[in-house]
């Protein structure tokens, strides 16, 4: 079925994204190499170094690298906010038409070629009428990844640069591993996923349980500056999720919508 194939493709895309993230976080390429203004390579020269220079500039203003990392993480998340909103709108649109998609699956459940062709046409018409693009939700995430990974690499390579002393933040040595910050980063990641689109998407629930453990695992071996970056980024995402997905008002909203639908059905029956 078209719907089943779509779900499988989304699941495969999710696994590929997780795999790509794992490779980047594991330290591919020059991840642990020092970074300077004359470091060669497109990624280092045009992505990583500008972020490092910006962090250093803010450090001169704010006094410590810790506060500079906090500030840069917030700035990057704010810049990415339009993409995050677009992703949220796409997820909501897909969620809203799920009942209609299930109804079509039930209506055209026969496996013969003619029925399946009618099903594909009905699904496509449903997407067109509701202005839904099933892959639109993935595009903002793909655009965000180079920026977020670039920030991650910048902090990691700053730690590998002898001339840069990351110092401390709230008593934590940013150049050393921190079990406390690693666990906090994992917990924050879980809360973010729990309050985001994963709460309504069965295909994303794999990420809900895998990602927090990945974050804690990496945090136990990487400098505390990275865990700090994850924590602040997830706090910003949690605030964003509260406004975009309204996770704590979710049940009342659904109940109210069901009541309205029941009233409409009741009115039609009376007529």
From TrEMBL:
Q: Which GO terms describe its molecular function?
A: membrane insertase activity
Entry membrane topology: Multi-pass membrane protein
Q: Which UniProt keywords apply?
A: Cell membrane, Chaperone, Membrane, Protein transport, Transmembrane, Transmembrane helix, Transport
Q: Does the keyword Membrane apply?
A: yes
Q: Where is the Membrane insertase YidC/Oxa/ALB C-terminal domain?
A: 65-245
Quote the cellular component terms of the Gene Ontology held in the record. plasma membrane
One Pfam family recorded for the sequence? 60KD_IMP
Which sequence ranges are marked TM in the entry?
65-85, 175-194, 206-222
* InterPro entries found in the cross-reference section: YidC/ALB3/OXA1/COX18, YidC/Oxa/ALB_C, YidC_ALB_C
> According to its UniProt record, where is this protein mainly located?
membrane
PROSITE patterns xrefs = PROKAR_LIPOPROTEIN
Top-level taxon of the source organism: Bacteria
Q: Which family does it belong to?
A: Belongs to the OXA1/ALB3/YidC family.
Protein name per UniProt = Membrane protein insertase YidC
């Amino acid at each position: 079925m078209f719907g089943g194939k779509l779900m499988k493709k989304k699941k495969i895309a999710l696994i590929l994204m997780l795999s790509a993230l794992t490779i980047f976080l594991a330290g591919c390429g020059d991840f642990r190499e020092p970074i300077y203004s004359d470091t060669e390579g497109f990624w280092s020269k045009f992505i990583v170094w500008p972020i490092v220079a910006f962090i250093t500039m803010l450090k001169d203003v704010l006094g410590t690298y810790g506060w500079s990392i906090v500030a840069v993480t917030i700035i990057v998340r704010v810049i990415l906010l339009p993409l995050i909103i677009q992703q949220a709108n796409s997820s909501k649109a897909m969620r809203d038409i799920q009942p209609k998609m299930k109804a079509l699956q039930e209506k055209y459940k026969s496996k013969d070629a003619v029925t399946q062709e009618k099903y594909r046409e009905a699904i496509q018409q449903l997407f067109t009428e509701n202005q839904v693009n099933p892959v639109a939700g993935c595009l903002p995430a793909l655009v965000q990844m180079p920026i977020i990974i670039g920030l991650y690499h910048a902090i990691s390579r700053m730690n590998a640069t002898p001339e840069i002393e990351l110092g401390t933040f709230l008593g934590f040595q940013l150049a050393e591993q921190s079990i406390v910050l690693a666990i906090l980063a994992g917990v924050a990641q879980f809360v973010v996923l729990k309050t985001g689109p994963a709460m309504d998407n069965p295909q994303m629930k794999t990420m809900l349980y895998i990602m927090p453990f990945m974050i804690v695992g990496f945090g136990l071996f990487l400098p505390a500056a990275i865990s700090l970056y994850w924590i602040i980024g997830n706090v910003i995402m949690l605030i964003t999720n509260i406004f975009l997905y309204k996770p704590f008002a979710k049940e009342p909203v659904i109940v109210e919508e069901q009541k309205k639908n029941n009233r409409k059905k009741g009115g039609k029956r009376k007529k």
